[in-house]
Design the sequence.
DNA sequence: CTGTTAGCGCATTCAA
DNA sequence: TTGAATGCGCTAACAG
């Protein structure tokens, strides 16, 4: 329970002026006398007056709070994205409320409900993996709470979103390997039901074709992202009569497990088989054998741009603004300085 | 700007009852007729009525928001701690507002100000490295906003805090190395002005003594945590006539750099020189040569216990509650399953 | 330039 | 069991 703090009423009483005068003085309203303004400000400072934000939220129907929902914080991708969000938000005097869905659609739905009730001014969401429908977000429209999706964006038109197109990076990855002379390049992909997986596969095949390599279906395998599933997928590649000499892996985490497993099978990393991945985690810098390269998806930029977009929407008086999809290009990068 | 939503007044009008009746009905107040209660609830559901949290915050002088300030989110330690906080908070219907100080004391101060103005019910803080004074937190007492510090706790009595005592883990670390036959054990410590460094050094020396090893001052070196400084510190150890055979390193990040540098100097990791560290980052699992062991500081537990403590303080009617310092024991751990 | 007044949505005290 | 009235702190429309 908050303590009782000085209010404009208090200041008004002491100065024998009206509350509106005090309010105007504190806001540098143009219809205020310089003398009274000075007096009011002086007393305000003396009393350590601070406007009661909750009263302002209530009155203005505006909380200056942005809600952010991500699957988890501990994944560096998301904490970096949130840093981007927070930096932009704080520059605009907004606060950031966070919650984790743990990739659980139901929990996500519940969080949306909470955020709605606490009257956030807007929402930034990277959806849970198993979120298929966007119904629980549609409800927010009725409440005039704009949503901007980022990174993991629902497959649906007419949404505001910021995402990173994996196409360029994937093509670069295949080019990179092809340039090194690899002919049999495998794709260790994520679950087929993820848009992220489809994008990778599509671009991967396109990359092969561009390099006049034919796509062998046996070289495209899939993991549900669990360790066991990844191991099985890798093993299936190793079991092939004609093994791949290079693998494009779903992301760095999976790549770490993949390489660990391969190593245990006496495969020499990046010699017998080369690896390229997605995410470009800084920590791979410290590996003895990191993937040769990794597709950067710019989480900080995604976060900050999503926040920018949300602010644009919020400050847009036009009610029926067209949804905007901002798409960044991914980029193949190495860990060299 | 929020849209106009159904209010209790609206429900009251439609049902030809008073607003107070509606309010009571929705709260299952005991002085309410069953019939009217049912009617009210039915209509509330039909209209999709949701109580306006901002009005409640305003009226009740309570926001159900907890502010969390950490140096940065991208460090897994902190994002894990925040997960602990968020899990406990959401179980108690509280929301979590986050902000990063980037280890800058001034920025931290500014954030405290913002949080104070947005009337958070309480604050959880892991202070910036260069924060010496706690003045900016003292101010919060006047506003009745309790603060619980965690992990990086100011050296000052009479604070509420949750921290992890490095003593046990450090002793275990030295024992561990001594048991492996190491006689010359070095400490690559952090900046001397950090409490965290002092704790390590004190316990380190105690550990040596317990193992009847004498502490050689030349074996205690220091890094300001920058890569260059770390390299220099490592080099100074390698330059010794009588090199250490084992090093206790400030944390895993520093250890990664240390080992990378040592490797470049043809030192065989954990053969020529063994390494033990602090933090126990999961990602070290994937290194070819992780430190042999690392002192776990239980960020999730620190976060959740700090949140628990804050709730206890918040629900404590007793104004002058004694400050409580909760101290967890650290623990030396390896990355083996 | 300044004062008066109303009202945001809700909980709550006092009457009935 | 219910209603009427009040006020939380602030902004803003309107009147002077």
Sequence:
């Amino acid at each position: 329970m908050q303590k009782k703090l000085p209010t404009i009423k208090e200041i008004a009483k002491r100065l024998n002026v009206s509350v509106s005068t005090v309010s105007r003085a504190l806001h540098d309203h143009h219809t205020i006398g310089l003398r009274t303004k000075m007096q009011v400000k002086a007393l305000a400072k003396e009393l350590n007056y601070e406007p009661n934000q909750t009263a302002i939220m209530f009155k203005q129907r505006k909380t200056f709070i942005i809600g952010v929902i991500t699957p988890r914080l501990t994944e560096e991708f998301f904490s970096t994205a949130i840093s981007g969000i927070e930096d932009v938000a704080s520059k605009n005097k907004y606060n950031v409320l966070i919650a984790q869905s743990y990739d659980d659609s139901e929990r996500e739905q519940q969080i949306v409900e909470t955020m709605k009730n606490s009257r956030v001014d807007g929402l930034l969401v990277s959806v849970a993996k198993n979120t298929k429908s966007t119904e629980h977000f549609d409800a927010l429209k009725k409440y005039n709470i704009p949503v901007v999706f980022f990174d993991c964006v629902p497959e649906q038109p007419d949404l505001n979103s910021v995402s990173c197109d994996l196409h360029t990076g994937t093509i670069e990855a295949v080019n990179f390997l092809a340039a090194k002379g690899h002919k049999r390049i495998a794709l260790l992909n994520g679950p087929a039901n993820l848009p992220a997986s489809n994008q990778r596969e599509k671009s991967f095949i396109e990359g092969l074709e561009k390099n006049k390599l034919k796509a062998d279906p046996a070289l495209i395998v899939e993991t549900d992202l669990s360790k066991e599933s990844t191991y099985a997928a890798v093993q299936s590649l190793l079991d092939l009569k004609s093994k791949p000499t290079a693998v494009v892996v779903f992301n760095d985490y999976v790549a770490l497990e993949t390489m660990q497993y391969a190593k245990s099978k006496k495969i020499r990393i990046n010699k017998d088989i080369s690896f390229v991945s997605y995410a470009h985690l800084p920590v791979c810098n410290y590996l003895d054998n990191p993937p040769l390269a990794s597709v950067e998806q710019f989480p900080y930029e995604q976060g900050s741009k999503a926040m920018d977009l949300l602010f644009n929407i919020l400050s847009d008086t036009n009610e029926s603004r067209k949804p905007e999809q901002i798409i960044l290009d991914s980029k193949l990068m190495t860990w060299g300085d």
In short: The mean pLDDT of chain B is 94.
